[in-house]
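Internal tracking record. Fields below are filled automatically when a chain is submitted to the structure queue. Please do not edit lines marked as system-generated. If the sequence contains nonstandard residues, flag them in the REMARKS field before resubmitting.
Queue: standard
Priority: normal
Entity type: single polypeptide chain
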Amino acid sequence: MSRQSGISLIEILIAVLVLSIGLLGIAGLQTVALSANSISYQYSQAALMVESMAERMRANKLGVVNGGGTSLYGMTAGIAPGAPSANCVTSSCTPANQAVWDQAVFYSQVTGSSVGTGSNTAPVLAVLNASGSPASSSSCAASYASNEGTNGVSGLPCGTASISCSTNATTNTTQCVITVYWDPGRGGATNYSCSSSDPTALKCFALAFQP
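SYSTEM-GENERATED OUTPUT FOLLOWS
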């Protein structure tokens, strides 16, 4: 009666299969971890941009709380703010001019699109999509991919932002909300609902504050 010795081919194949499944699982976990790190970084960038804008508004309270309960600060997502008529870094500005300048700088940070002309152009501090609006097609994603890392900077893909302020006539207090939107997957998200259950919704970070 013969005795079997060594390892059969079928045992080797089973061992290779088990090992392959394990390696695929590890690769999948690493992919998920990298994606989570990327989105976490984007949220951090959004928080810094929003807080920076809030501080600008606090420093220009006369622009935030203008006469008649109105505010000189206001931006609609996907629409560029007005071009500044003065460079508030190199010259003194009125509250109105400062508000226009602040919003132009904020828009440039979020979208990577400059606002203004000549010496009154707000600096572009991040290279993102050229249009400054959420991706309605693949153009935003393609533009971001081609510009990512240019001049050593990066930012929110396909970013845009909004600002709204309202004054309570009874309490005479003003509350503002600054929101930054972006498309982390660069897949054409266009919905401003910020819903986590909506695959077409942009990611967003919002800050409500009293100047």
